[in-house]
Amino acid sequence: MAEKSFKYVILGGGVAAGYAAREFAKQGVQPGELAIISKEAKKQNSPSNNFSVQFSIILFSCSAVFIGTPSSGCSLFLILSKLTSTVIVASSSGIYITSLIIAAIVVAPYERPALSKAYLFPEGAARLPGFHVCVGSGGERLLPEWYKEKGIELILSAEIVKANLPANTLVSATGETFKYQILIIATGSTVIKLSDFGVQGADAKNIFYLREIDDADKLVEAIKAKKNGKAVIVGGGYIGLELGAALKINNLDVSMVYPEPWCMPRLFTSGIAAFYEGYYANKGIKIIKGTVAVGFTSNSNGEVKEVQLKDGRVLEADIVVVGVGGRPLTALFKGQVEEEKGGIKTDAFFKTSVPTVYAVGDVATFPLKLYNELRRVEHVDHARKSAEQAVKAIKGLEKGQSVDEYDYLPYFYSRSFDLAWQFYGDNVGDTVLFGDNNPQSPKPKFGSYWIKDGKVVGAFLEGGSAEENQAIAKVAKLQPKAENLDALTKEGLAFACKI
Ligand code: FDA
Ligand code: NAD
């Protein structure tokens, strides 16, 4: 089997991979030195897809001209063209011209957050190449051609199934071997499945998870097929809240089910959650808390029909979306590299216990300097910044230049319906809630501070302007004193804006 050799290999073709590639290009990389290996596939674009999208992404297509009648057999002329294939069928009853597009979309690194938001819009939906990295952070959009121009090899539809770190070797599912001098692990996370806990019937058709673009495409097809149908969302975390809104916007009748007393308990206080639950209820979403899905029944086509809950209730469903958490993809490296808190342990430059191997994004457990603690972060801002830091460190070592330690301020955000929140810092200690958190308000704006040892260490804001969001970020970074919680509640956002 073929063997390929590179100076640098990035394993994974997601957010971190794209930002790492841009940083390599900034720092200087020779053609042929860098490869990105990703299992995300080169996709066949179907004829039903929107033409303007196809126009911009077509890499290969062909024109075919059929002449003759179906009964007498066809003579076929194949003409390669850049844009479309046209099939002309001349039969006894006339001439038919049809357009058949056979195109491959190159799934170069893209901004994954789009998949649970604009990708699912019923109108004006985001499609590649619109959201390739680095548009999510206001940067240049790196189209597949960009990688070509820079001599960066994009090896797609290639799942690595074996890693031999002592031998600097990766092996793909098709048996191809890749050698590297430096490896950056950017494999991200995978979804936790209900079948992992043995939930009965969880493999029925129209039960969806969302991680990659293929998952999103399947969901989009189902939304079209089950127009005005019933959807059940299992899980009340990020996926649950964003998908609940997306399916409602698509006019499905949505119910959400989760085990905790309120949504997003990993971050939200009960006060924050009450606003979103109220807002979602006003949109007509039914929220069922304190129970879980224990089984699914399906119809004679194998399509999901009902969701059985632990508390005995049964919900009808044409579509189910499950978001019950993610798991970092580290299995390939088990026993070969130090792990910590479920991720691959790194230093402040994202170097692992194996000196030729770095780990970035969701898989990295890194020193969070601000809190003097090892942490793993499953959010896009850290994926971008950790990737850039690793490449700076790699190139710095080569050039004999020192690089500052990673000094990260945690930043998470989400958007759904007309809502948008941002969070900075750490959600530990006491909390205060301020502002207008009435879900009926025409323009709600409210937030929370987290206070530990008399200092504000975390800040959340719904509906803030760019300046106000910058202000809460500054608070979380500078950790100003706030001993009187009542005064802080009264002052609210003004406290952040004066820092
Ligand atoms: P990422 O998952 O982006 O990429 C991993 C890549 O590795 C994939 O291309 C995968 O196919 C590939 N891969 C894995 N194993 C492989 C193997 N063995 N061989 C080859 N390739 C392999 N965050 C946020 O802050 N705000 C938001 O709004 C959102 N929204 C959001 C929506 C959805 C639907 C998801 C799934 C996630 C988010 N996130 C988010 C989280 C954010 O997207 C996530 O933290 C980053 O994508 C992590 O970047 P990575 O590059 O680490 O992994
Ligand atoms: P999550 O951890 O945010 O939420 C999982 C939810 O499922 C929790 O409420 C949990 O209690 C609930 N749950 C667990 N078991 C359950 C069960 N058996 N039945 C019903 N509910 C159950 O995970 P997620 O929402 O699946 O997101 C997956 C990954 O994608 C995470 O890494 C997340 O950070 C990322 N993501 C982030 C964003 C964002 O930052 N805006 C958006 C989408 C996805």
From TrEMBL:
Function: Catalyzes the conversion of monodehydroascorbate to ascorbate, oxidizing NADH in the process.
Catalytic activity: 2 monodehydro-L-ascorbate radical + NADH + H(+) = 2 L-ascorbate + NAD(+)
Keyword Transmembrane: yes
GO cellular component, one term: cytoplasm
Organism name: Gossypium australe
Protein name (record): monodehydroascorbate reductase (NADH)
Superkingdom to which the source organism belongs: Eukaryota
Residue ranges of the TM segments: 55-80, 87-110
EC number: 1.6.5.4
Keyword Flavoprotein: yes
